[in-house]
Structure of MBL fold metallo-hydrolase:
Amino acid sequence: MARTHEIADGIYVIATDNYRLNTGLIVGGEKAMVIDTGAGPRQGAEIFRAARRVTDLPFVVVNTHAHFDHFFGNAVFAADGTTDVWAHPKALRAMERYADRQRGFVETLEPEMAHTQGPNTEIVLPTRLLPGDGGRASFTRVDLGDRAVTLFYLGLGHTDNDVFVGVDEVLFTGDVVEQGADPAFDDSFPDMWVQTLLTVAGLDRYRVFVPGHGTPVERAFVQRQSETMRDAIDRISASTANPLAGPTTAAMYKLPYDAGVTRILLDRLEWLKSRGLESDDMVAEETPEGLTGPITRGEAL
Ligand SMILES: [Zn+2]
């Protein structure tokens, strides 16, 4: 069941059960913006119906990044006539290459999507992109009629293509902010993610931060998530740099994340180091095509 909450004037969070996903809905004078569409036609339709209970206006869609739970529902909105689908340029590239490979992740919850069988199971790609090549911070404004929404990219984080959506005092953060579960490091750039979180926490004009999953949080939560992540990275670095400290698995007991998440973080840090991808500049230079980690490499989550 979708649950719809109006968190500010004309600004809604549509929460659906699968993946505890949050979809944003911003109602303007002429159009309404839907932020993230779910993992397939089932969840997409649930979100679509919830949004239609709020407004009859034409929809504009934003995909906050190129992970399946945020864009596999696009086809449901395209079937309703939506043509504007916004994303980061590297999200488009990642989807073009790896969207089909991600179908395997939804076998249980969205079997039609997993097997490309039935209506609204095609991949609908973004048609509108943030400016630039994606290597630098960038922003654009989208006019919904009597209401402008700002879409922006701040740097590497949960992925290389995280888009934020700001309106009034509300910021939709995608999975850069994670509530109720440990952050997902699979495709992440942990060192830069810490920085990006600090930048987000420093954006004074926003008071409510809506994560991609979980419940909305305040600035202090974003700040804490950054500190916790910094601490985890430092502990891993210290334990891998000093073999006398014992195997990293032992040191993991002191880490803030559960063992599985810590393992993913550890592997990701080692992989980035082995590729020399340790700063925004290096990633922009070395991987102009974009980089989506385990999905790129075809590994299971
Ligand atoms: Zn994600």
Q: What stands out?
A: The two ends are 26 Å apart (CA to CA).
